[in-house]
UniProtKB/TrEMBL annotation:
TM region positions: 22-42, 49-69, 100-123
Keyword match Membrane: yes
Name listed for the protein in its UniProt record: Uncharacterized protein
Pfam family for this entry, one: DUF5362
Length: 182
């Protein structure tokens, strides 16, 4: 994709201000990422006593720690390049950034997949609990022990009245779970 040349003119044309700014921000974000990761690891390990699923917190904190260390490594190599102008330092710094962004891409893909899954589950649950206004009886169970002559009195919800009223049914029991919407 890119050809390597022995000429350093392209590398030297990178401004000192750009590289020092990139180095500063890589270091700053790296330090705060490492601090957050260490606190996350400590909190997750302490939380394992009460919640065994805290292992997922440890895993995500370790990933954040690796990302922070990649940024700190990149900062160190950018600083070395600024002082020595050795192109190997620039390559190592950019390679560390490449690893950082690759990890970030994978995490974002996982995040969007989880969001899509949760959204799908939410929409499926909404579909199951939604009902038409004219009929809010969700489940009818037939009980074969009841004879045709026997009558059972139940409370049946009438949407027009907005209340429960006594009603009589024959051979069926209507189970009426309903939601009050406000």
């Amino acid at each position: 994709m890119f050809e390597r040349t022995n000429e350093a003119s392209e590398i030297e044309s990178i401004s000192y201000q750009t590289l020092s700014g990139l180095s500063y921000w890589a270091g700053f974000v790296g330090v705060w990422t490492i601090i957050g990761a260490v606190l996350g690891i400590i909190g997750s390990i302490a939380g394992m006593v009460a919640n065994p699923f805290s292992i997922f917190g440890v895993i995500s904190a370790v990933i954040a720690l690796i990302m922070g260390l990649k940024l700190r490594s990149s900062k160190k190599e950018f600083d070395s390049f600024v002082h020595s102008k050795a192109s190997i330092n620039l390559e190592i710094a950019l390679d560390s950034l490449r690893h950082y962004f690759r990890i970030l891409l994978v995490l974002n893909i996982v995040l969007f997949a989880v969001i899509a899954l949760l959204l799908l589950l939410f929409l499926q649950s909404r579909k199951k609990t939604s009902f038409r206004s004219e009929s809010i009886i969700h489940k009818v169970e037939r009980i074969s022990e009841l004879s045709t002559a026997r009558m059972t009195t139940l409370l049946i919800f009438e949407p027009e009245r907005g209340s429960l009223v006594p009603g009589t049914v024959q051979r069926f029991i209507f189970i009426v779970p309903f939601q009050v919407r406000g």
